Structure formats: C-alpha cells, structure tokens
Amino acid sequence: MRTKRAPVIDGLQYANWSGKIFRQMREGGVDAVHVTISYHENFRETVLNIEQWNRWFEQYPDLIFHGRWASDVDVAIDSNRTAIFFGFQNPAPIEDDIGLVEIVHTLGARFMQLTYNNQSLLATGCYEENDPGVTRMGKQVIKEMNRVGLVVDMSHSAEHSTLQAIEISERPIAITHANPQNWHPALRNKSDTVLKALAESGGMLGFSFYPHHLAGKTECTLQSFCEMAARTAELMGINQIGIGSDLCQDQPDSVVEWMRVGRWSKEIDYGEGTADKPGFPPQPAWFTDNRSFPGLRKGLLDAGFNEDDADKVLGLNWLKFFAENFDKQA
Q: Using a CB cutoff of 8 Å and minimum separation of 24, what contacts does 161-165 make?
C-alpha cells in the first residue's frame, strides 16, 4: 500500500511524552511511531497507561492520534498529525492468560515482545546464560498473536528463542530496535544468522540509535551508522529494514532502573555498557530528537541509498509490514 507521499515511521520510542515532543514529531515530519506503553506492568496497570494516552490524544488532537491500522498512516499524512501505535516490551500485560492477547489487541496494542532481558513465561531474554527457547505457553501465545494481529517482537530476546519464534510464527516477526552484532557486539544486537532468518521470513529489523547499541556509542558518527545500514541492506535486502530509534528522550535516569529491574530483583541490574548506576547515555549529536529525521535521510543518501530506497528505510517498509500484520487472520 502506498500513501500520497512516502511516510516517516519510527519502529520504537519510549520518551517522557509531552506536548514538546509531540510538536517535535511534527517538526521532523514523523507520521507514525510505535510507542512502548508497558515494560513490566500487569494488565490493569497497562490499562492505566492507555488511559493516560487517551488523555494526551484528547489534549493534543491537532498533533497526535491513536493509530490502529496501516491506513491510519495515510490519515496522519492527510491531517498533518502523528499516528501513535501501542506496543509492549514484555508480555507482562497478558499475565498468564492467553485470552488477554485478543483483549490487548482490541485496546490498540500492535506489538508485544515475548521477553524483555530475562526469561519470561514465553521465551528467553538476551541477558540469560541459558536459552532453552520458546516455551509451551510461548508457542500457544504466538499462535494467538498471529490470529488476532499482534506482532511478535524479539528485540530483547536471546538467539535460540528468536530463531524459534521466526520458525514458529505463521506471520513475519519484527525486531523493532536493534543493530547487527557484526557492527557492535552489544548483548541485544543480532547475529547474521538471526538477521538472515528474519529477512528470509519477511520480517523487519528496526535500526536503533540507543548509544549502547552503536559502534562508538555516543560518539558514533552518522556516516558509520548509515554505512552499517547499507551493509545490512546487502545482507537482508532493502525491503526488510527500517528505523526503530529506541529514543528515550527526556526520561529521568530512574526509569532505567524500572526498565532493567522491574519487580524481579532488589539489586540493580547494571546491564550492558557500564558498571555505574544505570542512566541514559547522551544521544549521538546527529539524532537527539524527532527533528533529526531529515538529517538521517541525508546521511542515507550520502551512504549510497537512492531516494526510493531511503523512503523504504524511513517508512515504506514499516507501512507494508503494518498492512500485512495488524488485521486479524480470516
């Protein structure tokens, strides 16, 4: 499906949302964003987060609205607004009840990670020493997610679990925010084996700008990033890659503790990249907020992408993926 102009779509953000950020989305020409509305929240707590988003939709109707279908990207372009698509970075909102998969889809969720960094009821996270793969419940939940149109996201999952999810899922899965391990060996970045399997299955990779996932971290250059994107296009094909910035703009450092620790530990999980108290590292200078997207386009063109391929990376590939995966199966 093609819109009147090529859209700009970000496959993942977790900002400290405000009118300022919503206005910056419009200044940067961002037409759709997949936003994290749950890390470790249970179902009822996730509903409270949806209530908060409903208040923002009511408060800023000229800037944002709740996106549910691929066609809402066209609505966003026509109305000069940003469509907000909900997603979870952990299956905590469905608790241990497979019936909640359809409920959260009805409430507007369109992506759900099978794991965050730890073992979940469904699969194994990338910080675990052992990766036994997708669990019995995980197989059933993937089947139900496929049926209702909730995308399987394996951004924080371990390798064996990710490869199994690709194989088990009848619909293409997504890795919404990660980069190739061959560029930077962060725990959450993905091997060539995973990226090839993802591409062969029709899945999507969203490139992350989170400094711990970048070669050189905060000092990573736009040229290095865009050259990595070009190499990944050669590996996966131009139609299977997009942007998943993982932008955590204006979040206090205390939020990192919630992201990494949740309720499962009394100790701080320092995670990758630091032995200090968890906090958000500075963004690279070339991507500090949503107004940086035009500069990213220039970087892609300078790295050898033509205009059509840059359009695919910046939004058209995600739009096609949305169209194929958000509806219920017949």
A: 161/114, 161/115, 161/123, 161/124, 161/131, 161/133, 161/134, 162/190, 162/194, 163/193, 163/194, 163/197, 164/123, 164/133, 164/134, 165/114, 165/123, 165/134, 165/138
CB 86 within 8 A of CB 109: yes
Q: Does the pTM of the predicted model rise above 0.85?
A: yes
Q: What are the backbone angles phi and psi of residue 232, rounded to the nearest 5°?
A: -70, -35
> What phi and psi values does residue 194 have, to the nearest 5 degrees?
-65, -45
Query: Residue 113: helix, strand or coil by DSSP?
Result: strand
Domain 9-325: top CATH class:
alpha beta
Which stretch of DSSP H or E encloses residue 277?
A: none
Residues 247-267 pLDDT 10s: 999 888 878 777 778 888 888
Residue 82 β-bridge partners? 64
Q: What is the mean pLDDT of residues 277-297?
A: 91
**Does residue 272 register a pLDDT over 80?**
no
